[in-house]
Task: inverse folding
């Protein structure tokens, strides 16, 4: 596909976590238009698998949905921070553990119609407890289902966070191999 | 988890597709804070499977990523439009086909840290060609991989759209059963 050209860009609003931008663009056919976008510095998400093949998930309240959601540990990537460093921090803060083995297994675009955000996905194994104070606004309840249990939760739509589902799609084959492929 | 209370809400900016809002909220512990959010009317995504078990995907240019992306047909839900009606429209416009059988198979939150959007996922089968003029800014190239081929594209990270990956996580078991579970 042909690329579009950015004619101008302005920051409409700046939050502590991202900018809300307005671009003017030109299409390959010469037509022009407006694009409003949330631009972030990227994100990281972690699939933490313990020595028993259990996956560490966090249940948290999601203000914009008005309900709890069960998700993989994740967070935004502050400018100038290495993705792996941030992944380690998020794992400690949300899942309260560290990991001896880290592997980047893929990337996905979080919501590409509205944001440029790319989320990097890490597999973390060799887990051990760690202490870290979570953010004031974040309250987490930990779950440790097996991979077959996670698949049942997905099938039942009990896991409905898009990024978490995307991560399991990317990590699925590997989890089949390393965390037990047994079905329901 | 305890719910948060919305103290105030104002629209900071209104685009043709969504509003960018600023909320003040109160936490269960009494603390207060700011939340900026993209609020949409929801979205729909379709898993179209033809009689040979092939899945219809669309390759399109994604302005915010600056590159092409291979995705399931999808679109925003205009206010007052039934999700199934919009799903039929998106399938016609993007995949240029209609379907004789529709089933809603799940929902997911598109990007719940920043948007309230819930995307409803439909399985569409009994496909037949249809004509519909796409939006001016949208140029699509159609692909018809089998489900095992899609799984290889996911494994290779060639499919990296988060919503599309989320949809395949939700639809996977069903695709294993109906569209050929054979692996690479």
Result:
């Amino acid at each position: 596909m042909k690329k579009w050209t950015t004619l101008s860009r302005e920051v409409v609003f700046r939050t502590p976590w991202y900018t809300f931008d307005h671009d003017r663009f030109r299409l390959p056919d010469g037509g022009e238009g407006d694009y409003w976008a949330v631009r972030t510095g990227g994100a990281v998400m972690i699939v933490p698998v313990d020595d028993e093949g259990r996956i560490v998930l966090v249940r948290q309240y999601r203000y914009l949905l008005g309900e709890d959601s069960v998700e993989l540990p994740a967070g935004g990537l502050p400018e100038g921070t290495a993705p792996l460093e941030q992944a380690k921090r998020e794992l400690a803060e949300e899942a309260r553990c560290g990991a001896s083995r880290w592997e980047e297994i893929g990337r996905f675009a979080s919501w590409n119609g509205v944001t440029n955000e790319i989320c990097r996905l890490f597999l973390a194994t060799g887990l051990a407890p760690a202490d870290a104070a979570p953010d004031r606004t974040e309250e987490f309840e930990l779950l440790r289902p097996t991979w077959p249990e996670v698949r049942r939760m997905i099938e039942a739509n009990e896991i409905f966070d898009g990024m978490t589902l995307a991560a399991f799609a990317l990590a699925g084959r590997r989890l089949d191999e390393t965390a037990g492929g047994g079905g329901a």
In short: The mean pLDDT of chain B is 93.
